[in-house]
Amino acid sequence: MLQRWGGASHRDPVPVIGPQASNRWSKASMTPTLWTRKVSRRASWRSHAAAVGRGRSRARVHAGRRLGCKSGGARRKDGLTITAFAVNHYPVFPAAGYRFDYRGRSVVISGDTAPSQTLAKYSRGVDVLFHEGLQTAMVSVLHDDAIGNGRPALAKITADIPSYHTTPEDAARIAQQSGVRYLMFYHTIPPLPLAYLNAAFLGDAPKIFKGPITVGKDGMMMSLPAGATAVTMRELL
Ligand SMILES: [Zn+2]
Question: Domain boundaries in the chain?
Answer without folding.
Answer: 2-63, 73-235
